[in-house]
Description:
This protein has 224 residues and is mainly alpha-helical.
Amino acid sequence: MMYRKLTEGFGLLIVLGMLASPSIAMEDEVKGLMLIIEQRLDDPGARQQAMQAGRNRALLCSYCHGNDGNSVKPDVPNLASQNPVYLLDQIGKFARGERKNFVMNSLAKDFSLDDKVNLAIYYASQAVKARPQAEGLAARGQRLYTQRCISCHGEQGHGTAEYARLASQRPEYLRLTLERFRSYGRGEQHAGEGVRRSPIMEPIASHLSDEDIEVLAAYLAGLE
Length: 224
């Protein structure tokens, strides 16, 4: 059942033409790609092969994202348990230069469609590791999250095909990302190589204080 849901998300992403060139959005090609994905996810043997291929390809990513998608660097996101459609969308943005990071831009351009699908299947299947919550900070973060974030990212922070899973994310990465959204939302000059833009997040983050960002990160990092 889980894999059928993932397949529906893959189909949505392919229809939107986020995985490759615009020609991929042609109806017949979309149906063909969806069939390939369905076969990988629904057939135990094909799924196992996709998992193994994704695991092998993930070796390129392990220096930052860890062997199982649990990041080993504080400013790098966890990929484990992330929605696969969301992951593929972000890979596409790196490949197109909409998100900027020297390493990710280079890797994403070299990934084939098979690589993207297999990586997404692999990372989506890995368990993400939550962190202990500081009770005081987490309680305040929960109130703020319920007020401003829950409608997109979900009650438990598990996200959707369009919105990232935030539960169990690295707190340092959450802080950095929210600060970047805030800077752009306030029209401030942004320093550093990481470019992260969102017409939805920027106006929301523009109203967050440093304390707001701190308590949100503390709360989300401890969600399972």
